[in-house]
Amino acid sequence: MNNLVIDLTHGGVKIAISLAKKDKNVLAYDIYNTLDDIDEKLFEIYDICLIQLEDLKDFKGDMNVIYPIHLPLSTDEITKYNPNLNYTFQTHHEIVRELLNDWGSDIKKVEVTGVKGKTTSVFMLKEILIDENPLVLSSLGALLYENDRQIILKKNISITPANIKDAIDLAYKVANPICKIADGTVERTDFRIYDSAIFESSLGVSGIGDVGLLLNIAEDYPIARGKSSASQAKKQVFNCNCVCIQKEAMDEHYSNIVHDKVNTFSLTDKSAELSVKNVEYSLDKTKVELVYNNVKTVNDNVVSGEICLKTFAPGPHHVSNVLGVVLTCICLEIPNETIIKNIANYKGIPGRTNKKTIENSTVIEEINPGLNTQAIKESINMISELDDYYISIGGDYGITCEEIDEEKLSEFLNKLDKNIILTGDLGLSISKKLDKKCDYYKNYEDVYDLAVKNNKNLLFIYRSDYRNVSKR
Known about the structure:
Blueprint: E1 2-6, H1 12-21, E2 25-29, H2 37-45, E3 49-50, E4 62-67, H3 75-79, E5 86-91, H4 92-99, E6 108-113, H5 118-128, E7 135-138, E8 141-146, E9 149-154, H6 162-175, E10 179-180, E11 186-187, E12 196-200, E13 211-214, E14 222-223, E15 228-229, H7 230-234, E16 242-246, H8 247-253, E17 262-266, E18 274-280, E19 286-296, E20 302-311, H9 316-331, H10 336-343, E21 353-358, E22 361-367, H11 373-381, E23 389-395, H12 406-415, E24 420-423, H13 424-431, E25 439-441, H14 445-453, E26 457-463, H15 466-469
Helix pairs in contact: 1-4, 5-9, 5-10, 12-13
């Protein structure tokens, strides 16, 4: 059988080479023409053949097509090049699950997806599982923790499914460096540092997780040139052994799904398996009291109880992430005492959501590549009772699949009875749509300087790739 890997930009190189190492016959189609010289050389070494779809006419027999779930081509558009082949289709997520079928039976594995809050939730989970030296793949990089020491495996790595395997391979190389024996031969040990793994994924999960956490479908944006949607892609979370999902997302998008272990969480719906008893919001440590009923665990137990914790979660959207994380840990049968103790250590993420002090100014940063109007509303609500804060809104474009709705954001800001400082490309565009005048600074760093100079606190809301903003 021939295996055709489509899209070498979003993890296809890793998938193609992994299949070739298993003596599979591998073809590859570089749809976006991004293959570099190094990877092309690797393809030569592993006998991977680069083709165009037109070349399918030269093949006979079976053709397994491996494609990303956001591919802007339909199966019909692919098969038309040679209708006589016997086609099967697998997503990148599905092939990664197959490649990792024999991996990690004794490791706690969590896969995290959702429209908002993925990275935040991954690092809350990291804090809770820190005693088990977690391996982490997130938009902040591939990271390994050993005795609370962070090991950076790779910084600039995307959260595509193929990079789950890449993170695992990188961790293996760190734990098992090549050793040369006296006779000149080379061998590796087979040592593993980590006992847990947390993988962030943008469009669904591979299904290797003991628990799959789906945080929300805050926006059901289109993918694959409008042929699919975020909710359709994230439905893959139900391939995990146990599923934790926001109840509102479950009810709206997945009510027809049949799965033995689905547990829901909600800020407002008391019928969810995990619900809120009480919340006391704070910009430092929010106190959250939770009730859970009939939660189905990975070990086939059903548990109920209450848990009260404190952590950095200044707004409702942060608390919703806390709910998903706590429910995931309950499903993993992490003791409540461990959850309470370790989640208290979460203090936000530099370059995402965090609180810090610059001279006499308190700065709350809400930096997110997928920032939308609802998230901005929730952020502003955090300081609605405080009058000593500047509010800055801005950002960049071309960061994620979903772009921001400027009309909707402008309508909200026009009705907002607060002074707003606009910045960046987004801020400039919004300023032209507002009925009221707002101060504008092209360089967001000037907003920080303004707050410090005038002895004001600052809520800094910015739509950006965290790597750009965190370099300041």
